[in-house]
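WP5 quarterly update. Target: tRNA-dihydrouridine(20/20a) synthase. Source organism: Pseudanabaena cinerea FACHB-1277. Length: 333 aa.
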Amino acid sequence: MQPAIAQYPIAQYPISIAPMMDRTDRHYRYFMRQITKQTLLYTEMVTSAAIKHGDKDYLLGFSALEKPLVLQVGGDLPQDLAECARIAATMGYDEINLNVGCPSDRVQSGNFGACLMKTPDQVARCIEAMGRAAPIAVSVKHRIGVDELDSYEHMRNFVQILASAGCQKFTVHARKAWLQGLSPKDNREIPPLRYGDVHQLKQEFPHLLIEINGGFTDLEQAQAQLNYVDAVMIGRAAYDNPYLFATSDRQFYGSSHSIPSRLEVAAAMIPYIDHWTAKGLKLHKITRHMLQLFHGQAGSRIWKRMLTDNSCKAGADSAVIEEAIAAVRLCLG
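Structure tokens (predicted):
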């Protein structure tokens, strides 16, 4: 019998920002919501053990403005991941995503991430347990292959087994993962991209939501991919050039709201910064995500220098942002 997993609307979110360790925390996500209201956002990967035993508010807390939002988890024990799904649903996440793509040594030692592509039946048991545990959509982010198991047929079999367990959404990083000999950074760059494999996957499984990830640097590339797949995930470019997403709501969701300027985005962060610094958070925990706001623009160098030099000082608060905004205005004339 098909597991009772929550149904996932096909192509509801045609564009998303990838989960990135040490990057997509709640402060980055709030910052991005000043730029795009509708792009699907993800947390950093959080292990199932951390979710079970750690400070849930610290690890998983978010503001309502960050939604739609997906919790990405790492783990390989069905009962633990089921508990994560229940917690995610209770806290108001829109989806829970299982990481079957990360190649780092730490992830491998915990027997999750990309190494799980070698054991699809185990992943299927996890998916089924998560789906039965809570009324929340369950998805998987994986590679096109791992080590020598890198044929299209292997990926197709992996997806078919997980789909039979109830998974309806697959985010596919279009590079294989080498678990030995390549760093996580190299695994994002050295194995060649094989977009055609992901396109073929959509052709063979038209009833599944297939999202493609890997190497995309602008929205025009993402738009072109929607001729072949349901959705596109952008990672590093979303962090290195966050204002890239300023037009995404209009382009992918038909929104008619006005597009904020970079200066307006910066100013919109001031009340948020006041809130968190009043609670004792160091300013640089927020501003480190804002350094690339003026990427490629006049004023970018002074913006980054002022935030970098001043955000770590004792008592630093939103005045740092106000002063940096004023300096950029002068650069812009």
